[in-house]
From TrEMBL:
Catalyzes the formation of 4-diphosphocytidyl-2-C-methyl-D-erythritol from CTP and 2-C-methyl-D-erythritol 4-phosphate (MEP). One of its GO terms (molecular function) is 2-C-methyl-D-erythritol 4-phosphate cytidylyltransferase activity. The record marks R147, K206 as: Positions MEP for the nucleophilic attack. The keyword Transferase applies. Coiled coil: none annotated. InterPro entries: IspD, IspD/TarI, IspD/TarI_cytidylyltransf_bact, ISPD_synthase_CS, Nucleotide-diphossugar_trans. GO terms for biological process: isopentenyl diphosphate biosynthetic process, methylerythritol 4-phosphate pathway. This is 2-C-methyl-D-erythritol 4-phosphate cytidylyltransferase. It is an enzyme of class 2 (transferase). It comes from the Bacteria. NCBIfam families: ispD. It catalyses: 2-C-methyl-D-erythritol 4-phosphate + CTP + H(+) = 4-CDP-2-C-methyl-D-erythritol + diphosphate. Keywords: Isoprene biosynthesis, Nucleotidyltransferase, Transferase. It comes from Corynebacterium yudongzhengii. The gene is ispD.
Amino acid sequence: MRVVAVVAAAGQGTRLGADVPKAFVRLKGMSLVGRSVDSLRASGVVDEIIVLVGEGMERYCRDIPDVRLVRGGGERAESVWAGLSAIDDEDAIVLVHDAARALTPPGMIARVVAATTAGADAVVPVVPVTDTIKEVAGTRVVATPERASLRAVQTPQAFRLAALWEANRRYFAEDDPGFSATDDASLMEWCGHEVLTVAGDPLAFKITTPIDLRLAESVLDYAAQGE
């Protein structure tokens, strides 16, 4: 079964405070999206990689070989929809990955794909939540969910392409779907599909702020010391 990875790299990522879009910020000499693409390749389970870029961002991808560039939209969901529409094999498995998760281990990627090829329509990697989570309204705490049942979701998320394509079609056909899709698994849940989980990895954290970038640099420095 063909596996196609769609890498979301069209956002601006203003919280990182860089002078280029976040996906193209350099981490030890390589862009975040470049490192994400390398991890996907190293997993040994991905047949094609599509990188979603914003208008004028193509020039930042010149040093990333063997990827197909597709113009993304203004919002993440619109970008992913453009990527899905560029895949011509409805029987494929699609991986949707955030370029900002640049240190995602290849083994975790292979684990997500393996669970999907076993028959699931949707699989997401998750890690336990270690902080106490509060639900708030304004500045007032209204609830404290039971932490044991909570998980933080990472990417790549894996889907049967036909099922995810149909979920996106229904979402964009609605004048008011009643929620904002913050990830692709939420669309599948909305359409009634079962979403399964596999173990994620702490290294698959999302690089969003300058502190996250410093942490990623420290991780790479530590890894280099052990080589």
